[in-house]
Write a structure and sequence with these properties.
The structure is a single chain. This protein has 340 residues and is mainly α. The protein contains 15 helices and two strands. It has one domain: ABC transporter involved in vitamin B12 uptake, BtuC, CATH 1.10.3470.10. The two termini are 27 Å apart. The model has no long low-confidence stretch (mean pLDDT 83).
Length: 340
């Protein structure tokens, strides 16, 4: 007997939730130095500071960003009807990179001071606010230029996004030529994807901000299933194709924009996790979206734990974006071979 979508989604959550808890436990217990969880929970120093001010915020940030990127990846792959679509394919990474580079160059100037005050109002750093603004500006640009006959055209939007990313990469490389070595290193680390140690109130705000677009996408899950039939088939079944694409596109863009503001460009999460979930749970977006959120959270938390483990052997911690790429590329090949 076939299970309903709600039952299958509940089953997927029940299976993946322990994985998230296990990943969080690994992330909290892993680091450059030894940590006694028992002493930390009892408030003994320095274990309490390491756990609650360093490792816990980092694990929470990794979980939030991993979930956001995975949900956005599912939505964009459905919108484009392209299994290779990535959360940064619409030029979002390029827009975020341009925003960060501009603020870095302008630091110390009147523009930089204004950005500092504006970011402080939201509890962010100037680079974070600029990255979010750049990503959303890129999304608006791609949406505007990717429309044909009043509706968002997937192939047209994809082409605009790819071209804009190439333009942004060239612009950022040109900007790096005039940066000081310390500024260039900061931009390079951000482009590679890094997890910082944000304050818990800011992480709570980010979690709420990311929950809104995620809930919008989950509410659109049934319509995304029908979009797989093609625009005409979906419209015949009562789906407002243009409105659905608009909502899903900007919800996914908002999730990615908020995520990159905190971590920079962390690739492969929104590409690998949705494919792995579909391989197990099937193509129903009512199941894939919540399952991908949990799977993405666990994946990025474990990738960050691996980055911290590598610190012991390398003497320096690699960016988490480099770890996700190194781990994600062979995983993607294995997933593609398993689908044959």
């Amino acid at each position: 007997m076939k299970r309903s979508a709600a039952a299958r989604a509940a089953l997927a959550v029940a299976v993946l939730l322990p994985l998230v808890v296990l990943a969080a436990a690994v992330g909290l217990s892993t680091g450059a130095g030894a940590l006694s969880l028992r002493d930390a929970l009892r408030g003994h120093e320095p274990d309490a500071t390491v756990l609650f001010r360093l490792r816990m915020p980092r694990v929470l940030l990794a979980a939030e960003v991993g979930a956001a990127l995975s949900v956005a990846g599912v939505a964009l792959q459905a919108l484009l009807r392209n299994p290779l679509a990535d959360p940064f394919v619409f030029g979002l990474s390029g827009g975020a990179a341009i925003g960060t580079a501009i603020v870095t160059v302008a630091s110390g100037s009147a523009v930089g001071v204004a950005a500092t005050y504006g970011a402080a109002f939201f509890g962010l750093l100037p680079a974070q606010l600029a990255a979010m603004a750049g990503a959303m500006a890129a999304a608006l640009l791609v949406f505007t230029l990717g429309r044909a006959r009043g509706q968002l055209e997937p192939s047209r939007a994809l082409l605009v996004g790819v071209v804009f990313n190439s333009f942004a990469s060239a612009l950022v490389l040109s900007v790096e030529a005039v940066l000081r070595p310390d500024q260039m290193q900061a931009v390079s680390l951000w482009l590679a994807g890094t997890l910082g140690y944000e304050a818990l109130p800011l992480l709570a705000g980010a979690g709420v901000a990311l929950l809104v677009p995620a809930l919008v996408l989950i509410a659109l899950a049934g319509r995304l299933n029908l979009l797989a039939l093609g625009d005409e088939g979906a419209a015949a079944l009562g789906v407002d194709v243009g409105r659905t694409r608009l909502l899903a596109f900007f919800a996914a863009s908002a999730a990615v924009g908020i995520a990159v503001a905190f971590t920079g460009l962390v690739g492969f999460v929104g590409l690998i996790v949705p494919h792995a979930v579909r391989l197990v749970a099937g193509p129903d977006h009512r199941v894939v979206l919540p399952a991908s959120a949990l799977g993405g959270a666990a994946f990025l938390v474990l990738a960050d734990a691996l980055a911290r483990v590598l610190f012991r052997g390398l003497g320096a911690e690699p960016p988490v974006g480099a770890v996700t790429a190194i781990v994600g590329a062979p995983l993607f090949v294995l997933l593609m071979r398993s689908r044959r």
